Amino acid sequence: MQLQPIKQSFKVQYDYQLYFTSGLFSLENPLFEKLIADYKDFEPVKLLFVIDDGVKNHHPALINQISAYCEKHQQTIKYTSALVLPGGEQVKNSDEAVESVLKGVNDNKICRHSFVVVIGGGAVIDMVGYAAAIAHRGVKLIRIPTTVLSQNDSAVGVKNSVNAFKKKNFLGTFAPPYAIINDSNFLETLEQRDWISGISEAIKVALIKDKSFFEYISDNAIKLKHREMEPMQYVIYKCAEMHMQHIAQGGDPFESGSSRPLDFGHWAAHKMEFMTNYELRHGEAVAKGIALDVTYAQLTGLISEADLQHILDVMISIGFDLALPVESSNEIQSLLDGIEEFREHLGGQLTITLISDLGVKHDVHTIDMELMAKAVLKLNHQFALN
Prior knowledge:
Layout: E1 17-21, H1 31-39, E2 45-52, H2 53-58, H3 62-72, E3 77-85, H4 95-107, E4 115-120, H5 122-134, E5 140-145, H6 148-152, E6 159-164, E7 167-174, E8 179-183, H7 192-197, H8 199-209, H9 211-219, H10 221-225, H11 229-249, H12 266-275, H13 282-300, H14 305-318, H15 329-346, E9 352-357, E10 360-364, H16 369-382
Parallel strand pairs: 1-8, 2-3, 2-4, 4-5, 5-8
Antiparallel strand pairs: 6-7, 9-10
């Protein structure tokens, strides 16, 4: 008897929303309680909170505010515990951090109809999302990002990850959150470098998709540098909207193909983060990576020298340091090795996103290594290392 293959095909629809508010855990703010009640209104829902220690340090009353909020809405919300973990990229290098979240899920009997609520920057959100995705094969996650970069980029997508084998995001999952909530109050206590660094992701998406958005950033560069909230909120909103539209409409939300336009500038960024032992913020590294790739694009003739200098001038006006952390030929070669590492991470054919005009992406499948090395030298000649 010859058995025929059994064919299987099904589709899964994902729905989640990004909310905007201020003072989320103020007793008068109904947003969070309504979000939980809309999920299940016949019994209280268990919540495990995981909080970035940097957020706790800048907002020392936060845990008490959360506890009081949950107490007020105890018919809807069952507060279990609040774990406080270190922030920054190093948390993604720590097996102990993932294990502590998994232990919290187990100890507090968090199930697939409970929620893990993570409050913090992009690295903590990445790590907690990974832990939530592997616990019980997926515990529901609410992300409350607290930095510019996490509010406009890393927290609004469907990816979760940790680092391993000296490679960024080597372990990870595609697991959309239940919801994301951007609370502008958290932005007010950011260090200046964290305020600035997240703007690089907005520059990235503007350069590959929307010239008018890039010109808005250009026109408001000084206001953004000087921490004016209104233009920053628009930049966050527009950047997040464009990221979410790309995920939903780009045809490859779980990145099965070789092209990842939202990783423009990222092959070098990921490598520089590692080379500096993550002293560079991700957004700072992305700014440098964008600067390098547009310089390479100019050397190949894809964009003009005038457009190149316009892009670099905008980033400098915002406050980015665009010098690359490489000097010797060995360091430059180590940086260029990041191209092959990026291909391995994507899988399949090498695809590097460049631009052929402001707002127009241009994918290439080969890189002239000698010309890329010249781009490194050109950029560092213009922006000498401090």
